[in-house]
Amino acid sequence: MALDNLIFAQCILYFLSFVFGFIAVVPLSENTEDFGGKCLLFTRGMWQNENITVSKQRFIVEEWGPESSCSFITFVGIASLILSAVQAWRLLFFLCKGHDDSIFNAFLNLLISSLAVFTVFLSSTIVSVGFNMWCDSITEGGTMPSR
């Protein structure tokens, strides 16, 4: 019975991983689509006056971020969605049918899940640093642009 509770908890955690992965992948792909395939991560730019007489400013992008960073993060997000859905379904199947994993399958699942955790951590670090650079560029180092 205790093993069933552990498998059920793992199933719920994989389902939550699927939901949170979906919450992360959809806005990132929409963001990339809205900017015509350009990636906002690591993008640099500056505020410039439109002309001398009007004090209206607009943001000029100096350099777009590398598309590979957004592509990697989208790939990791979709891969984690697939992995978490497959694992949740598999564990739910084990729970309902009463099957058990072999030692080799448990070790293989440990390796795959560890690799997934590592890549998700790496992609979340890339997102944090990339959007931090973008926000610093937009707000001129953390302050609102002068008008």
Automatic annotation (TrEMBL):
- Which branch of life, at top level? Eukaryota
Answer whether the UniProt record assigns the keyword Protein transport to this protein. no
- Protein location: Membrane
Under InterPro entries, the record lists: TMEM179, TMEM179-179B
Q: Which UniProt keywords apply?
A: Membrane, Transmembrane, Transmembrane helix
One Pfam family linked to the record: Claudin_TMEM179-179B
Per the UniProt record, which residue ranges are transmembrane?
A: 7-28, 72-95, 107-131
Q: What is its main location?
A: membrane
Bilayer disposition of the protein? Multi-pass membrane protein
Q: Which family does it belong to?
A: Belongs to the TMEM179 family.
Its name, as the record gives it, is: Transmembrane protein 179
| Organism from which the protein derives | Etheostoma spectabile
